[in-house]
Amino acid sequence: MTAYKAILFDLDNTLLDYDTSERESMQRTIRDHGLTDREGLTWELFWTSFAPINWTYWSERMERKLHISDVLDYSFRDTLVQLGFDGALSKALAKTYWELFCSSCLLMDGAEELLPGLHGSYELGIISNGIGEAQRRRLAIGGISHYFPHLFISDEVGVGKPHRLIFDKAVDALDAERSEILFVGDSLTDDYAGARAAGIDFCYYNPHRKPAREGIAPHYIIHELTELNGIMKREEEPQ
């Protein structure tokens, strides 16, 4: 077994708590703009409408060449209209939300303890389906950007996971063979499939202990980020 020389990470919901940042930023946005004061509009009602609309625009953004400001503007507009309100507030909502979200960095449990120990012993990098401005700002605000000299973000590369190209670009930037690279992520759809296509080992971060579908076989499964230390230590031991 070849010892690993490099570790690539997914970012959202692997190192950074995307779900909480998104929810808190969205709740503050609609509160600051007075939407929660409108009769009959609760957070649950707003989010139930917004989430599927936003996912549709987000999924289509590359094909339709939509800027993130357009994705948010259209998502807020359509949500307000669907709920029976004037959609004219959408641009202001989009601007407020984006600034709040880009300024939010909540580390996943164990990330703060894990990264200093890996830094200097392994080349570290990130492969993320996201927006460069947000991902870079959040890493800097969280005080962990210096750990990652290699950042590959879908809107900057032009393709996202699980497309092999974004993985190949990351591999080419590392001073390591494919057999010496481990990718850590929380998605079997984007992360596992992409790593497998690129021929690099995959560690499935599964904090909620979700059952894997039949035929899915990550090299490793961890439920806490700090378990990665044990994997790296075992791989360094003589076989």
Automatic annotation (TrEMBL):
One Pfam family linked to the record: Hydrolase
GO molecular function ontology, one term from the record: 5'-nucleotidase activity
NCBIfam families linked: HAD-SF-IA-v1, YjjG_YfnB
Protein name listed in UniProt: Noncanonical pyrimidine nucleotidase, YjjG family
